[in-house]
Amino acid sequence: MPVPMDAFDDVRPAAECLDLLAEPVAAAIRDWRGSVPVQELRYVDTDPAIADTELLVTHHGAWLLEQSANCVVVAGKRGGEVTLAACLVLSHTRVDVNGTVRRHLGARKASFAPVDTAVGDSGMEYGGITPIGLPGGWPVLVDAAVADVPYALIGSGSRRGKLIVPGKALAELPGATVLDGLGVR
Question: Which of 1, 18, 94, 178 registers the highest number of CB atoms within 10 A of its CB?
Answer without folding.
Answer: 178
